Amino acid sequence: MNHVDGLIEVSNSYSAAGTPGNGYGACSTASCHDNGRGSIVTTPAWGSSPASCIACHAAAPATGSHSIHLAESGVGCADCHKGAVQSTTVPDQHLDENIDVYVLTSGDLGYPQNKTKATAYSTCSTASCHSNGLGVYKITPPWGGSGTGCNMCHNALPTTGAASWMDVGLAFNQANKSFHPIVAAANSTGSGTSVLAAGQLAGGWTPGQTMYCTDCHSTDSANSTGPHGSAIKWMLAGTNKAWPYTTAAYNGTSSGETLRTYSNRATNQGTSNGLFCLNCHPVTVNNVHTKGDHSSVPCVGCHIRIPHGGKVSRLISAADSATPLTILPSRLAPDGNGGGTVYLRKFTRAAYNSYSKSNCYSSNSSCGSHNSSSYGSESW
């Protein structure tokens, strides 16, 4: 390149090279301006406003697995590319002409460091958002590949914690007699009848509405990466977050704290240690809850511990056996671990303010007025 020949000489196919004063141009073969996959893009004209990310690629790229990650609440560019802010700020090491995937220090996600653009996608092996839930990292599918559902991180039904985990297909089966209406509204007729009356709902909910997972589960920290991160076990959302104990710190445990009853329903209400059910339900309206002896019975003595859905109406745990814990899934037992006292053997649903003793059959010695096997009709 001749510096003193009186011409503007710029490499990379600059469009306005030549006589000074003939206007600024753009480069069309500059390797430092590509779409991140090795395909060169034409730069903005020299002297124009600083280029944003979209000068080279989409603000939210759809290549590889970008779309599925960016669709998650709380996930942003900087979670994989340190320092990046969507549409405005390039990440660190942006101009080294390599693919750099890390959060704080190079390699901390287990993705190959300084990966050459346009080469085959790879995997992350130390990403906290891909673990088995017990702190053990799982190798992700190759970027752009298909996942394998829950088993991608949980290779089988876990056997750790309160008990073997629930069959989610069972919990959300809309043929169940009762279920929280996740994604699809609760049935209004048929064997799956589970729509509540308006008087049984609070917090802005009305009969027949559809719920989503995030109505009950959510992150509680702005520092969380993606949807998984909360100081509250089970990631319970809403003002009141404690279930089935009187403090949220015992969520997911099997003992060590006072179980919720009707009598202590208001303990810590309005705080994270308040009864979780109170976010959506005014539990005082049901005439069963308010009857004498019932007020001191743990909620999980009659209702399933994990209230996603169940085979008996109103999320009742009734199992028609002298040993009901041999029938009820362990995760749904009062202690979440196949133990505790299940009071009911059969149950029949009624209007929430008109239950009578014949709606429930129990052979428990403390439930003498319900000891007729002709009572109730539903059981696990």
Description:
The protein is largely without helices or strands. The strands form 3 sheets. The protein has a two-stranded antiparallel sheet. 24% of the residues are buried. The chain is 3% helix and 3% strand. It is built from 3 helices and 6 strands; from the N terminus they run H-E-E-H-E-H-E-E-E. Among the domains are: 1-57, no CATH class; 59-156, no CATH class.
Largest sheet features = 2 strands, antiparallel
In the sheet with the most strands, the strands line up as 1-2
Number of helices: 3
Question: How many DSSP-defined strands?
Answer: 6
> Per DSSP, what share of the residues sits in E-state strands of 2 or more residues?
under 5%
Structural class: little secondary structure
Order of helices and strands: HEEHEHEEE
- Fraction in helix: under 10%
Concise description?
The chain has 380 residues and is mostly loops.
SSE layout and pairings?
Layout: H1 66-70, E1 98-99, E2 115-116, H2 168-171, E3 178-179, H3 213-216, E4 309-310, E5 346-347, E6 360-361
Using brief descriptors, characterize the structure shown:
single chain; 6 strands; little secondary structure; two-stranded antiparallel ribbon
